[in-house]
Fold this sequence. Notes:
heterodimer; A: alpha+beta; Thiol Ester Dehydrase, Chain A; five-stranded antiparallel β-sheet; 4 helices; 5 strands; 36% strand; B: alpha+beta; 19% helix
Amino acid sequence: MTAKIAYDDVEVGTELPAQTFPVTRATLVRYAGASGDFNPIHWNERFAKEVGLPDVIAHGMFTMAEAIRVVTDWTGDPGAVVEYGVRFTKPVVVPDGDEGAVIEVGAKVAAKLDDGTVRVDLTATSGGQKVLGMSRAVVRLA
Amino acid sequence: MALDQSFVGRTYPPTPPYEVGREKIREFAEAVGETNPAYTDPEAAKAFGHPDVIAPPTFVFSITFRAAGQVIEDPQLGLDYSRVVHGDQKFAYVRPVRAGDRLTVTSTIEGIKSLAGNDILDIRGEVHDEAGEHVVTAWTKLVARAAEEA
């Protein structure tokens, strides 16, 4: 594993470059196919509303997959991730149309651990709502 | 109806092996907009020290969640899946999942709680490769929302 960021070069509070991820209905259909999760709340507006949702929502696992990109784009080697966990706090609501929704992800180093790893705490919001909570990754740095 | 606490600690038989293919990893990586070459280019993956292309960190969920179906659909447990939402998800990696892996999953019920009428089910999936080496552990928390009063 060869992360491009060195352990000695980061401090508690070091911010990772933030990113925004667009998500449209087409994105969700594609993710459904790739992941095998065909729950209709992720592509069928009528069904989503029938079960009490405001509209089609993104797969929680899609949001989780996007958020960690802020970390893996920083480390270079995605194999540097040794732990990753999230809580799904609010759904990402994805309206019809070309614009869809946007997921905004920020991250910073929260702790330097003894074994050459650091804990990165992530924030993810969409439409001003926090969509992930307790979102943390442990990564092994060079 | 609250789930039976006696299911806590129950372990289900390992799943048949899932073979991880390069093109499935590519499809998944493209679906989440990934451009990291470690997912698609074996040479780039080797430059990072991996024997073949690796999968994005959350890829393995497709495999562990399918395995968790044994728990979710266990008629004796009686979970109402139509009311289930995904609460928490966590992974701990011994190494990244990579192309060529043949992975089996062993699912265990770690916890059952009832909170304000909601059933909360914690499932741990231990993922091993063909040599029996541990690759990753996935923890999935499912919440079955309380049924509305009729």
